[in-house]
Amino acid sequence: MSQTKALKVRLTLLCVLAGIVLALVAVVTDHWAVLSPRAEHRNASCQAAHFGLWRICTKRIVPGDGRDRSCGPITLPGEKNCSYFRHFNPGESSEIFEVTTQKEYSISAAAIAVFSLGFTIAGTICVLLSFGKKRDYLLRPASMFYTFAGLCIFVSVEVTRQSVKRMIDSEDTVWIKYYYSWSFACACAAFGLLFLGGLALLLFSLPRMPQNPWESCMDADPEH
Asked: pTM for the full model?
């Protein structure tokens, strides 16, 4: 592999590494979305919530002096209680989430995110093995694994987005306001870095294209 192409591969792998870190942060944290119910009285406490792929945290706070009637912001001090979703840990109590959304959404988003991490592990193994002599061809399956990981993160993000939308639109819920938080932003950034990084790695790891009409790929000079 030429020095120019090797430099491009290293820079691409740095971007992919950043995507892996962001994906891991998004999967293990619980700030994908923040939900706020209606605050009936300005001086009365209310319960807001934020959740991730595995658990939900509720916080009892006293609303601020904003004009809207929603409970928040969630950054206000208050009593916080976190619990894993009941379908992941039957011993935990998370009725607030069981009532307000379909557990299929949560299970699907979490499972797809786990698949994404599995693809990143497989891609990283291929990259590490490619450091051996004349094993540059392993960068190609690694690039595909990273691309698939990015796509899985995107699907997980979309499933979560649809879940939040259904919670807000449902007449059986108390939520009237929501916004996506920093874990959601990490997942979106991870999708971009993994997907684009995987495609770039595939492009850089392909054999040199023929430079003349009469030259074939088999005629190209070896990269080692």
From this structure: 0.79
